[in-house]
Amino acid sequence: xxxxxxxxxxxxxxxxxxxxxxxxxDVVNDETQDVTLDVTPDVTPDEDEDEDEDxDEDEDxxxxxxxxxxxxxxxxxxLSEEEQKSYHFPDRYxxxxxxxxxxxxxxxxxxxxxxIPRKTKKRTLGDVEVMEIVEEVCSKDKFxxxxxxxxxxxVTFKGPAFPDRKEAGMSMGGGLWPIRxxxxxGSVFEDIEESEAYEAYREGTLxxxxxxxxxxxxxxxxxxxxxxxxxxxxxxxxLTREEL
Length: 244
Known about the structure:
The chain is mainly alpha-helical. The protein is about 50% helix and about 5% strand. It has helices at about 1-35, 45-60, 80-85, 95-115, 125-135, 175-190, 195-205, 205-210, and strands at about 145-150, 155-160. The chain has a two-stranded antiparallel ribbon. Helix 5 (about 125-135) crosses helix 7 (about 195-205).
């Protein structure tokens, strides 16, 4: 009898423990399923169509794209084959070149005189200084602020001696132009002494002597204000290199 009771108790405890394990397994499985969530909201087909219509309305209400504006293009100044290869200034540019020389030379004379002490009785330059200024005006560096550009269908020069030429466009410089400038400048002073040039500057007739009676004859009939350079007169319309 006692043995039978022990067997019954053992059997009963085994059944209870298995039931408990199955319940624990069920709890674990439920918890695992709860962790997996569907974050995609339920949307009915009607709601999809409504949202598409709203999107279309939003797109229709959006402002139009801004107009970029008219496209502007520039072309290089056109030069003949001779002008591209020659070491001499083309005839059609010699009046411009003469104006550049006048502007540079008159400005250098004016600047040198401004350095003379005010207490000095003779406020003029000496022969040696005048000679040095005239020789320097024909150097390549004196031409570095200039370039050629198409202005109103005409290819011409742009730089400090031409303050009214401010049109936008493609400029061309360097290359053979500094050499051409030096060659032309030297030819201008073949028949003019340095002292004569300085005297003309003192009298206010520098442009007339260098250009109006030579390469600008028939093209210009007066001295441009920017080139009317003389002692005690402020230059008009002069632009710095940064302003060009």
